[in-house]
Design brief:
The protein is mainly α. It has one domain. Helix content is 72%, strand content 0%. The chain is built from 5 helices and no strands. Helix 3 crosses helix 4, helix 3 crosses helix 5 and helix 4 packs across helix 5.
Amino acid sequence: MAAAAAAKTTTRRRRRGVLDLEAQFAFFRSQHRHPVNAAAHALLAWPILFTGLLVLHFLPSPPALPLDPALALALAYAAAYVAADRRAGALAGLLLAAGWAASRALAARLGFALAWKAALAIQLFCWTWQFLGHGLFEASKASPCLPLENLT
């Protein structure tokens, strides 16, 4: 009886849908089998998020929301990652916090006129390689998932 109770407390509850991290990674792996495509996604997903945060720093905060939009997005992503898996989510949360802080510092240093140009160039480069990775290197030619379709 005690062994069953101990086993019950040590087993993790299986999550479903977008919070099922194992299913998210399995889906990601099924869409990114070629090493060049997988590397493009691993290396270029964070710059896409970073430059998105960079541009969001220049949007005014809504009166009802005391957070700047970049911080709100970083917190939302961090919360989703923590909800999916505490350990991996904590690491992702730290990376998001560092990305938010770095993008805020860069936004203050560059100013809007230069920041949006840099962000646009990086976004175009990264998204182009996301699509080229699928079109040129994947046999299935599956279209890339947009950021809200798959958290990984």
